[in-house]
Amino acid sequence: MFTQSGAPGGTGTATRPRTGDARRYVNAAAVLRTVLDHGPVARSRVAALTGLSPAAVSRQVVDLTRLGLLRERPGSAAPGAGAVGRPQLPVEVDTDRIAVAGLHIGLPSTHFAFLDARGNVLYHRELSHRGRTGPAVLRPLLARLPGLLAAVPDGRAVVGLGAVTGGAVDRERGVIVRHDPLDLRDVPLGALLAEASGLPVQVDNHARALTQAEILFGHPAARRSVVHLFVGHVVDAALAVAGTVHVGPASPTGDVAHLPVPESDALCPCGRTGCLAVAASDTTLFEAAAAEGVTERPDRAALVAAVQAGDPRADRLVRRRAEIIGRALALLADVVNPDLLVLTEHFSCLDPAYLDVVRTEFARRSRLRRDAALVVAQRLGADVLAVAAGAPALSALYARPVHALAS
User: Fold this and answer.
1) Spatial contact of 173 and 190, defined as CB atoms under 8 Å apart
2) With contact defined as beta carbons under 8 Å apart, do 254 and 240 qualify?
3) Can you say whether residue 350 is alpha, beta or left, with left for phi > 0 and alpha for psi between -120 and 50 degrees?
4) Rounded to the nearest 10 degrees, what angle do helices 19-38 and 43-50 cross at?
5) In angstroms, how far apart are the furthest CA atoms of the chain?
6) Whole-number Å distance between alpha carbons of 16 and 20
7) Which terminus in the chain has less CB density within 10 A, N or C?
C-alpha cells in the first residue's frame, strides 16, 4: 500500500527509517532509475552502473517486480559461457500494472489524468470551472474525485495522486500558499485531496513538476542543469541542478512574474506596469485578441483557430508575446547559465515558427551569446498539463519506490 510518511512532498508526517531500511530504499531507487534510463537491461549491467553487487541487484529486482514497477523483458536470453542455471532475462520498467493519478488546477479548468510508470498518459480529461474561482473551484472537484479515480484503465492499481497548480505552493505541507488568478490562499490541498481520495497526495507548483518530469523522462541535459519557464494564465519558473529541483525558503522556487518588460504598459496587480506576469500571460494575450477583433471573446481555442487560418493579426499578437518570452529567457539564462532552457507555452509547442521567434530574440538579448538551440519547447504537446499533474506522484515513486509501495 502506498504510504504518505516520508515521501517527498507528502501530506503525512515523516518517520525515521532504520539503517537497513534506508539502505534498501536507496538501493531500490538506484536500480529503478537505472532501469528507467537503460532498460531493457541485464542485471549484470545494472550492477555495473550502480556499483551494487549482483546479488543486491537481484534482490531489488525481485522486490520491484513484486511491487509492479519492473518486469522481465519477454523473449529469451542465452547464458554466458560457463554459466550455470536459468538464464536471466533483461528487465524494464513495467508500464502495465500500476498508475498514478494527477490534477492540474488551472484558471479556466482542471485537467485530470492517469499516467503509467514511464509518464505516458493513459487517460486525460478536462473539467471546466465554469467561471468559478476561490474555494468554489475545489468543492465540485473533491466531490467528483472518487468517481474519476474509479475509471482507472485496465484494472491497474492507483498508487498515488499528484496535484499541481501555479503560483506559490508549499509542497512539504501540501498547501497552495497563493494563486492570484484563482483567488486561492493558504488552501490545504493535500489534506483535502487525501481525505477525498484515500490516496497519498503529492502537491507541487506546476513548473517544478514539469521540471522533474523533464529530468525523469526528457532531455538528457536536464540532468545537469535546467531552467523551465511556464507561460499560461500564470507565469512561473523552476530551476534544477544535478537532478534536484530547487525549492526556496517559504515554498517558492523564485518569482519571475515581476521581471520588467519595458515595452509593455499592461497594469499588474502589484501596482506596476510592464511585469512579465501580465505582459506575457494567456489572459493578456486572449484579451488583446478580443479587443482587436481577432476573436469574439478571450478564448484560447478561438485564437488558435485564427492563427491556423493565417490571420495576420493573430500571428502578430503571438509573435509579439514570443519576443517577450525570448527576452525573459535571455535574462534567466544570463543569471543562471544552465545547460538547458525548457519553455512550456502553447503556441511555441503548436508551431515551431513561434519557437524560432523566441530563440531569435533570446540569442539577440543574451549577454552570454549562448547558442539559441539551448532553448527547447516542452515536447509533451497536448499532454503537458496531464504529465505535470501526475509528475509529483511519479517523482515520489522514483525517489523511494520500496518505501512508497511496501505493504
Assistant:
1) yes
2) no
3) alpha
4) 120
5) 77
6) 12
7) C
CB-based contact 260:266 (threshold 8 Å): no
pLDDT in tens, the chain (407 residues): 333 333 344 454 344 455 556 788 899 999 999 999 999 999 999 999 999 999 999 999 999 999 999 999 876 554 444 444 556 789 999 999 999 999 999 988 999 999 999 999 999 999 999 999 999 999 999 999 999 999 999 999 999 999 999 989 999 999 999 998 899 999 999 999 999 999 999 999 999 999 999 999 999 999 999 999 999 998 999 999 999 999 877 665 567 888 888 888 888 888 888 899 899 999 999 999 999 999 999 999 999 999 999 999 999 999 999 999 999 999 999 999 999 999 999 999 889 999 999 999 999 999 987 789 999 988 877 788 999 999 999 999 999 897 777 64
**Shortest CA distance to 193 belongs to which of 392, 17, 397?**
392
Find residue 115's DSSP bridge partners: 100, 121
**Domains, the chain:** 19-93 (1.10.10.10), 99-210+389-405 (3.30.420.40), 219-378 (3.30.420.40)
The pTM of this model reads 0.86
* Closest by CA position to 61, among listed 86, 94, 84: 94
Q: Which three cell numbers stand for residue 204?
A: 507541487
Query: CB neighbours of 84 closer than 8 A, spacing ≥ 6?
Result: none
Question: The cell 498539463 sits on which residue?
Answer: 385
Q: What one-character DSSP code corresponds to residue 166?
A: S
Phi, psi of 176 (to 5 degrees): -80, 110
Cell matching residue 358: 523566441
Please choose, from the candidates 252, 265, 288, 263, the residue with its C-alpha nearest in 3D space to the C-alpha of residue 180. 252
